[in-house]
């Protein structure tokens, strides 16, 4: 009798009985999908007591960087006296600083106020952030290279400056700087996107290429080699161009007895070199320390400093040291007072 009663169970009743088992089987798949699409960002390691002071300090730095760089672009674009090749080339620098600071700081500020176990980021968002981080890093070097070329022409060939540094030449140089940075970074990130992922934690305050390919359990030798070669080529190329340019400028200044020319060269070249050295040292440090896990804390600090110090100092160094921009700032300040 019992076997007959079991045999008469309807199909809908069997589906009802096995539904909990089906749900249990589906849950691990949902968790697996979550792990692959959502990453955990390590962020800055700050204590709960120091999170608010660090947040306020970084927020003030971010606001100052944005206001000063946007202010410089606005000043150059609205003042007709500043519509010349030198200042148009200079606009590439604050534009790049705005990009590099914006792609890092808002997310970093948001994570500081969160618990370390709640700093989630989607894989797509992480890739976009890594892409623009590397575009910013590469464009820093290329922009400073073309600015050094501008100073070389102005000091070493002053009579031919207007014929060489035309608006067309400025557009070509700017397009070269940004185009080369975008092309090489696209190749580098593309090599990383082909890898499968078996990890979910970004061991960095923000996403970059090295953090992304470290998520894979596949062979990442190609990514490592390309990343190192790319870094060495960019750093070496920019250092070589800056060195050769300033050697030639120094030679002209030594052989020439023109005090006005020498004074102009010292002012423009010293500020350019100061910004370049700050950017070069901080950038090279955090890129190379990615290959040495034992120095992870130093690497994280260097990476944050690279996106804070140069963008914050560039408007002060270039804006206040450039005579024409300084005069316009003083003029506007006095008019307001």
Which features would summarize this protein structure in a list?
337 residues, mainly alpha, three-stranded mixed β-sheet, 15 helices, 78% helix, 3% strand, disordered N terminus
Question: What features would you describe in this structure?
Answer:
- This protein has a three-stranded mixed beta sheet with strand order 2-1-3.
- Helices cover 78% and strands 3% of the residues.
- The protein is mainly α and 337 residues long.
- It is built from 15 helices and three strands.
- Helix 7 packs antiparallel against helix 12 (259-288), helix 11 runs antiparallel to helix 12 (259-288) and helix 12 packs antiparallel against helix 14 (309-321).
Number of helices: 15
The helix content is: over 70%
Query: How much is the average pLDDT?
Result: 79
Radius of gyration from the CA trace? 27 Å
Unreliable segments of 5+ consecutive residues? 1-9, 13-35
- Sketch the topology as an H/E string, one letter per element: HHEHHHHEHHHEHHHHHH
Overall geometric form = globular
